[in-house]
Amino acid sequence: MRPAFVNPAHRSPATCPHCYSKRIVRYGTLCLRRQTTQRFRCNACRRTFTDKDTRHRTYPLKTILAALTAYNTGHTLAGACREIARRYHTKIPLSTVHSWIQDYRGVCTFSRLRAEAMRSCRDDSLIITRKLFHTQLYLYQLHRAKLELAGHELPERSISSLRSYLNAVPTKEFPHTLFTREAPRISQVRFPLLRTDKRTRHNAANVLTSLGLEFAACNKERHQAIQDFFMANDSCTVAAEVPVYLTAEDVQYYSRSGFALSPRDLGQGIPLTGHIDLLQIRNNSPPTPGISQQNKTPAQAIHLRVVRRQALLRVLPVAGGLQAEGKGHSRLAEPCGGV
């Protein structure tokens, strides 16, 4: 008999949910009516468990989340059912999809804005997707409806420049040549180590990330799966893989201002480029880039925040705590959060 497939992108739980021991081993699979999940055994208390809550759930979690994503990307309830039937060969009643939407309303917060978003944009233009060949392939995504709704809450001077910048990214007017030449990338630059305190937070972003991992068939797909899930279901995320750049003049200004940025270390006049994983607008405040800090030193994380904010200065002349001080220069505000 062919062994049941278990998603290799899902890692084992860190501790046992019963005794919190770390002596956990894989212990076969649990076959349910429509899904198969990995089973674990704790060698300390000798109890078995799974990494998912499968109680009172007929359909797999991936099917549920796919239906929510289809609905939040513009499909009707009937359209979401047809999409699930096409992709997973499973017929789901309309009432079931409606109950899923209500159950995950607190996590997939875009469902609260969906009605207003559908009035401002058609379903085929909610999310604009473009492939950017910037040395390597980046999938740029822009949620036009969220950006439009944010414009109703924020002052026009705070959102107009950002809207123009994001809309210009997939066009020929954007300086794509800066990203195709042999320029240093922010993820490859080694900055001097700064003394920082590591802070760990658990919020809705952690829950959304764990749900987005359900669509990753392997570790390589984890990054894109999380981005797609945030773009469709999170009410704050407006763009993904946003290209930004830092010119030599910007580096010189920050070097004179006391930041540990040296033009000599950054390629002697060659622009420094990068891509923001997720761009969010939270609590009616200016957008703060949310990006995964995995595999980055604390010093890199701080300098990444500086570089990304400077790149957005040419987008946001005056926005909340981020204020311009002369042409090309500005004062950095305290970070207001991110993913």
Features:
disordered C terminus, 19% strand, 11 strands, globular, 339 residues, three-stranded antiparallel beta sheet
Structural features, described:
This protein has 339 residues and is α+β, with helices and mostly antiparallel strands. The protein folds into three domains: 1-57, no CATH class; 61-104; 123-201 and 227-331, no CATH class. Helix content is 34%, strand content 19%. The chain contains eleven helices and eleven strands. It has a five-stranded antiparallel β-sheet. It has a three-stranded antiparallel β-sheet with strand order 1-2-3, with no helix packed on it. Strands 9-10-11 form a three-stranded antiparallel β-sheet. The protein is globular and about 60 Å long.
What's the total number of strands?
Answer: 11
List the domain count as a whole number.
3
Q: Please list the strands of the largest sheet in the order they lie side by side.
A: 4-5-6-7-8
- N-to-C SSE string, H for helix and E for strand: EEEHHHHEEHHHHHEHEEHEEE
Q: Output mean pLDDT.
A: 75
Largest sheet, in brief, is: 5 strands, antiparallel
User: What level of helicity do the residues show?
Assistant: 25-40%
Assign an overall shape: globular
Number of helices: 11
Radius of gyration: 22 Å
How far apart are the termini?
A: 43 Å
Which structural class best describes the helix and strand composition? alpha+beta
How much β-strand is present in the residues? 15-25%
Uncertain residue segments: 1-6, 286-339
List the helices and strands and how they pair.
Layout: E1 24-31, E2 36-42, E3 48-50, H1 61-72, H2 77-88, H3 94-103, H4 114-120, E4 127-134, E5 136-143, H5 144-153, H6 156-168, H7 177-180, H8 204-212, H9 222-233, E6 237-246, H10 248-256, E7 272-280, E8 288-290, H11 298-313, E9 318-319, E10 322-324, E11 330-331
Antiparallel strand pairs: 1-2, 2-3, 4-5, 5-6, 6-7, 7-8, 9-10, 10-11
